[in-house]
């Protein structure tokens, strides 16, 4: 390092891609090619082959053992002397992280093609709603495009309300606008509308939170688990109440109550299906835009 700092041009080095975790050591899989001078051959970056002593495989993420064919995606598993032995004082986590044969479940989705590995995403970065699989990063990327969301301070978290048959999402975000401003209801509602276009049903909740409460990890990521704990312990009650007010204000601006016998009948029908009060179903709104509870 001293030599490099005094005369960087005297040291030859390349920047290459690779894979590693705290549990597996950094660079247990890597490709000795400079990523800045080599044109990528595939959509997903080639992360290379295992170092000597390390093995990798792609398997069915459900059973954790059925091998996937070359070029098929699945869960990445690794084993070798560089893989850790156990989590400190956490036998449950250790047991769930290993498969028979000493294979460690990385939780990553990847492809092995021609002996080289490519990562696609994380297994837990997807959620199934009514049989359809949705990508959490893709959803977050679309929601982040809305003007009024503080950059990198938005998290979409899978959440099942007690008694419901399927999961939905809670959207946490830090607004860059004044929540008491005149445009706040419209901006807040726009976030919900983007969600509905992607998921085809309303989110469980949309919660505006000040940046100071959206703590990030040392890696610069928002902790979804911490936000859920805050939600479940009631620590976000006032923010949820304000979110409900904003949606009510946005809905009230164009709300037209059912008046005819047919309209009232349809309102009761939709209210029953969507778990709403009769007076929450307007005649001028598409079913996809209703606020389900």
UniProtKB/TrEMBL annotation:
Residue ranges constituting the AMP-dependent synthetase/ligase domain according to the UniProt record: 15-88
Signal peptide (from-to): none
Gene3D superfamilies: 3.30.300.30, N-terminal domain of ligase-like
Domain of life: Eukaryota
Residue ranges of the TM segments: none
Name of the protein in question: AMP-dependent synthetase/ligase domain-containing protein
GO molecular function: acid-thiol ligase activity
């Amino acid at each position: 390092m001293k030599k490099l700092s005094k005369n960087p041009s005297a040291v030859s080095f390349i920047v290459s891609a690779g894979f590693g975790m705290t549990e597996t050591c950094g660079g247990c899989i890597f490709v000795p090619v400079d990523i800045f001078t080599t044109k990528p051959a595939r959509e997903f970056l080639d992360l290379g082959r295992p170092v000597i002593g390390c093995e990798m495989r792609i398997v069915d993420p459900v059973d954790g053992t059925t091998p996937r064919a070359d070029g098929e995606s699945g869960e990445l598993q690794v084993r070798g002397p560089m893989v850790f032995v156990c989590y400190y004082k956490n036998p449950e986590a250790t047991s769930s992280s290993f498969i028979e044969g000493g294979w460690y479940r990385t939780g990553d989705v990847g492809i092995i093609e021609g002996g080289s590995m490519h990562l696609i995403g994380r297994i837990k970065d997807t959620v199934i709603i009514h049989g359809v699989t949705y990508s959490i990063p893709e959803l977050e990327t679309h929601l982040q495009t809305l003007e009024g969301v503080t950059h990198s301070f938005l998290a979409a978290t899978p959440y099942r309300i007690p008694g419901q048959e399927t999961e939905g999402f809670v959207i946490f975000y830090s607004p860059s606008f004044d929540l008491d401003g005149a445009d706040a209801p419209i901006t807040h509602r726009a976030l919900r509308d983007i969600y509905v276009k992607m998921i085809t049903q309303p989110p469980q909740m949309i919660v505006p939170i000040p940046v100071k409460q959206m703590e990030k990890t040392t890696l610069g990521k928002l902790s979804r688990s911490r936000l859920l704990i805050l939600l479940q312990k009631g620590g976000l009650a006032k923010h949820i109440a304000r979110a409900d007010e904003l949606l009510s204000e946005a809905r009230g601006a164009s709300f037209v109550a059912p008046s005819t016998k047919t309209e009232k009948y349809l309102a009761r029908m939709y209210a029953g299906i969507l778990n709403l009060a009769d007076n929450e179903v307007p005649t001028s709104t598409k079913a996809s835009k209703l606020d389900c509870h």
